[in-house]
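subagent[fold] <- orchestrator: predict structure for attached chain, return tokens only, no commentary.
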Amino acid sequence: MLHTRMVDDLPGGRVRILTQETQIGRPAAGPARQTPDPMLNGHQAWLDGPVRAASGRTGA
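subagent[fold] -> orchestrator:
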């Protein structure tokens, strides 16, 4: 299992966050077969946090 994140500071006060993951290996085998995919949902939840912080919002 591999997780990579890259954060770019773009012109105009914008930020781009690129993420990539692999679901290879024993720890990822079970979740990779589930629908909905808990790893995908977890990563989306992680991305929602910086978006809320940048926009000044809090909570879910």
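orchestrator: received. Logging for downstream: The beta strands are 2-10, 14-22. The first helix runs from residue 26 to 33.
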